[in-house]
Amino acid sequence: MHRRMFPWLAVAGLLxxxxxxxxxxxxxxxxxxxxxxxxxxxxxxxxxxGILQPDGARLGSPDISVDLVANPIDDPADTQxxxxxxxxxxxxxxxxxxxxxxxxxxxTWEITVQPENGDTLAPAAVNVLEETxxxxxxxxxxxxxxxxxxxxxxxxxxxxxMPDPRFYEISLPDALASGRPTVLVFxxxxxxxxxxxxxxxxxxxxxxxxxxxxxFVHVEVYTGLTEPDFQPDPAHLAPAAGLDGWSLPSEPWVFxxxxxxxxxxxxxxxxxxxxxxxxx
Length: 280
Hints:
Elements: E1 15-16, E2 32-35, E3 43-52, E4 58-59, E5 66-72, E6 80-83, E7 85-90, E8 94-103, E9 107-115, E10 124-128, H1 154-157, H2 172-176, E11 182-187, H3 197-207, E12 215-220, E13 253-257, E14 263-268, H4 273-279
Parallel strand pairs: 1-4, 11-12
Antiparallel strand pairs: 2-3, 3-4, 3-8, 5-6, 5-9, 7-8, 9-10, 11-13, 13-14
């Protein structure tokens, strides 16, 4: 597995309502797509695509249908297409389209948005990796220590303003040794550059009651939260998120790990409740 780090990816913004009426274009003429996640590997891989305008306004909604098309940049004829599934980052505010593609080779690929109405948007590039930075589906989960309430108060464990104690009662090594599935959330609600950390953690918290036989572990991306000179910088990066842990290239993340310690699902940036239900 590659062991490098990239800057956090910014995918947040303001959702703008689309034009009404089926005869009108789904998006304004100057709209374009971006790939909003970067840890994309060969094989079956989940891709998130945002729709923007030049002023940074974010577009898209569950009511606007799009198809997403992928092809290697050096082979435009080798295409695959699938409907984009709209997924909220912040409910009723901003979201992205998600899709699963089968990437048969590493390198630069183009992702093209074809709206239900109007012109196809200019293609966006994504670098498909031979090996992902963070653990991929089928990999053994890295066993790295994480702090718990038995050792630290909430103020040192999380920036979640309404923490769920179940997410801090068991360490990751103990969770992986428990013989039960584990949902692992990496997020930093107070310092998230994507604005997705709090909503994603809240979503997982809202579902925990439905899975009483599953471990839930939240790892704050940063440590030293109560230090007088604390800054959300690389010097305060949590060991579990760094190069000796899960090698996260962005935040937030949700991983699902089975009772044998194998990663069975991974969600970068944004996730819908139905995706987690299917993984569990």
